[in-house]
Amino acid sequence: MTTMNAIPFTFDSTSHTFLTDSGRRLSVTQILNKVGVCDFSFVKQETRLISMDRGNSVHCLTQLEDEGGLNYRKVPKWLRGYRKGWNLWKKRSSFQISSVETQFVSRFGFAGIIDRTGTFPPSVFLGPGTSAVIDIKSGAVPDWVALQLTPYAVWAAGDNPAKAQYVRRIALRLSEDGTYYVREFPCCTFRLDWARFMSYVRRANADNQTLPECR
């Protein structure tokens, strides 16, 4: 899998802003939020905050785990099941991690953070390709996640849509009880998903106003 980024940028984690020499770039999920694809306005504010805190905690936990910086004894008990599920899936799938929480800016006018890129041994995890982008979820995996993973696949394939159709798009939902749910989006829908996402990029960039993440 090719990983590259020829566009210099700075990232403000507080406002989740990607700033390049030519201006601000909206992230993938900010774009999907802006065009109403992943609109959570109907969810109570308290519920949203709880879900966001849980998601951020799970992402931080798995990042530390994969980077070798996790002190398991200091992990709260309610989070340990998420770690168990993540490690169990990696072991069963033989997924080999290439990058962790990678920030990028694409030449196609969007930015983002990819949870994981990596590969599967063909003999262990059969499918149309061995390269993959993984998005870690601690809640439901709705249909729009296919659109989230599509531009991630493009960047992971060297910012090349023609090659990206062979990158597997996988969402992994981790649960508190240590179980997991895998949802893979088919390669045959990649071209349509890419066309849809790029139409959203053009709409969102017409009125570039930063919105919250859908993560």
Could you please describe the fold and organization of this structure?
The protein is an alpha+beta fold. The protein has a single domain, classed as 3-Layer(aba) Sandwich (Trna Endonuclease, Chain: A, domain 1), CATH 3.40.1350. It has six helices and eight strands. The protein has helices at 28-34, 45-67, 77-93, 145-156, 161-164, 190-205, and strands spanning 9-12, 17-20, 23-25, 96-105, 111-119, 131-137, 168-174, 180-185. The strands form two sheets. It has a five-stranded mixed beta sheet with strand order 4-5-6-7-8. The chain has a three-stranded antiparallel beta sheet with strand order 1-2-3, with no helix packed on it. A hairpin with a 5-residue loop joins strand 7 (168-174) and strand 8. Helix 2 packs across helix 3. The radius of gyration is 17 Å and the shape is globular. The protein starts with 8 loop residues before the first strand and ends in a 10-residue tail after the last helix.
